[in-house]
Design goal:
By secondary structure, the protein is mostly helical. Helices cover 71% and strands 0% of the residues. It has a domain of 88 residues: RNA polymerase sigma factor, region 2, helix turn helix motif (Rna Polymerase Sigma Factor, Chain: A). The radius of gyration is 18 Å and the shape is elongated.
Length: 177
C-alpha cells in the first residue's frame, strides 16, 4: 500500500468520525451501561480507528467499521477485567427526560420498555440496539458482533418474546389495542 492510499483512507476516517460520536457513545452506553465508560470506549475507538486507518476499506461505511472496533474494545475490556457484575445498567430516569405533559405518556412507556431492554441478556441488548436502534441489517449486526446472522435473528426473536410479555402481564402503561 502506497502513501497516497493511506492518505485517502486516513482522510475518509478523519472526516467520518465526528458525525458518529453520538452514535458511538450510545452504543458504548448500551454495552457498558455507564456514561463514563461509554465516553472512554468512544475515545479508544477513535484512537484505534486513526491508528489503524490503513485497514479501513475506502468506499465502505466508517460507521460499521467503528462499531466493530468499539465492540472489540469492549469485549477485550471485559476479558481483561473479568468484572461486570453490578455494572452495565442504565437508569432509564437518566436516559429519558420528560419535557411536558404531552409527552408524559410516551416517556412513561419508553421508560418501561427501556427498563425491560436493560434486563435482556447482553447479546440480545446488542442485537436490539444495532438492528432496531441503529437500523442495521441482520448481516451488518452479525458482522459487527462477529456471530452468524442466524444468531442475530434468534437473539431478536427472544428479545421480542420477552418484550412482548409486557402486554401479557397486563401492564397498565402499555396501550390497549
Amino acid at each position: 500500500m502506497n502513501h497516497s492510499d493511506i492518505s485517502v483512507r486516513r482522510k475518509e476516517v478523519q472526516e467520518g468520525l465526528p458525525p458518529l460520536l453520538k452514535r458511538l457513545w450510545r452504543y458504548g452506553l448500551v454495552l457498558s451501561g455507564n456514561a463514563d465508560v461509554a465516553h472512554d470506549l468512544v475515545q479508544a475507538t477513535c484512537l484505534r480507528a486513526l491508528e489503524k486507518c490503513e485497514q479501513f476499506q475506502p468506499g465502505t461505511q466508517v460507521s460499521r467499521w467503528t462499531y466493530t472496533i468499539l465492540s472489540s474494545i469492549w469485549k477485550n475490556e471485559l476479558r481483561s477485567r473479568r468484572v461486570r457484575m453490578g455494572e452495565g445498567v442504565v437508569d432509564a430516569e437518566i436516559a429519558l427526560v420528560t419535557d411536558g405533559v404531552r409527552e408524559m405518556d410516551t416517556n412513561l412507556l419508553a421508560r418501561q420498555v427501556l427498563k425491560e431492554v436493560e434486563r435482556l441478556p447482553e447479546g440480545q441488548r446488542e442485537a436490539v440496539f444495532l438492528v432496531y436502534g441503529e437500523g442495521m441489517s441482520y448481516r451488518e449486526a452479525a458482522e459487527i458482533l462477529d456471530v452468524p446472522q442466524g444468531t442475530i435473528m434468534s437473539r431478536l426473536a427472544a428479545a421480542r418474546q420477552k418484550l412482548g410479555d409486557l402486554k401479557d402481564h397486563g401492564d397498565h402503561l402499555l396501550p390497549a389495542e
